[in-house]
Specification:
single chain; mainly alpha; 10 helices
């Protein structure tokens, strides 16, 4: 009876330890991801910290910086609008950051995974008309993060897109790609 309790107690400690290690690994991946975001957009870690404090998903932070940079507005203003309920689609449209600005080139024969429908439109419409392509908020987040990871790590965007389908987040994917 006593040995069963000791075994159970040991298993509980091992499980708690495994959860702690996993949480530390996720936190380390997120910190590395945010360092890459800061470097990519040439912003300070304190600016990234401010954006993190706004309780955006990690993958939305580069979207804030991408749209703000191209629209010439502050990230804080964008976050305020986003938190008021406006979608990334509406904000991109409002500030003229549409499908043309978000386009990330991949070879025509490359599968586009979660962006297959978007790339079908890119391929079938002349580039001068790309801003007529309506992107979902998820499309925008995906395009910005594919650009970020591809350019930061020197990996072809098609490879990032292919690997994104198996990852639960771009933070996780970044962590896998830097290993």
């Amino acid at each position: 009876m006593q040995s069963n309790r000791l075994v159970l107690l040991a298993l509980v400690f091992l499980a708690v330890g495994a959860v702690d290690v996993e949480a530390q690994e996720r936190e380390g991946q997120q910190d590395a991801y945010f360092r890459a975001v800061a470097e990519f957009f040439s912003v300070s870690s304190s600016e990234i910290s401010v954006l993190r404090d706004w309780r955006l998903t990690p993958e939305e932070v580069p979207v804030v910086l991408f749209v703000a940079e191209r629209a010439g507005i502050s990230g804080e203003a964008l976050v305020t609008l986003r938190r008021s309920g406006q979608s990334w689609s509406a904000l991109g449209e409002r500030y003229g950051v549409g499908a043309a600005a978000l386009y990330v080139p991949i070879p025509d024969e490359s599968p586009a995974g979660r962006l297959s429908g978007v790339y079908e439109q890119y391929r079938s419409i002349p580039p001068g008309q790309w801003d007529g392509i309506r992107l979902s908020a998820d499309d925008i987040v995906t395009l910005v993060n594919v650009r970020l990871l591809a350019e930061t790590l020197g990996i072809p965007p098609a490879d990032v897109l292919r690997r994104a389908g198996a990852a639960s987040s771009f933070v996780q994917l970044y962590g896998e790609l830097i290993r």
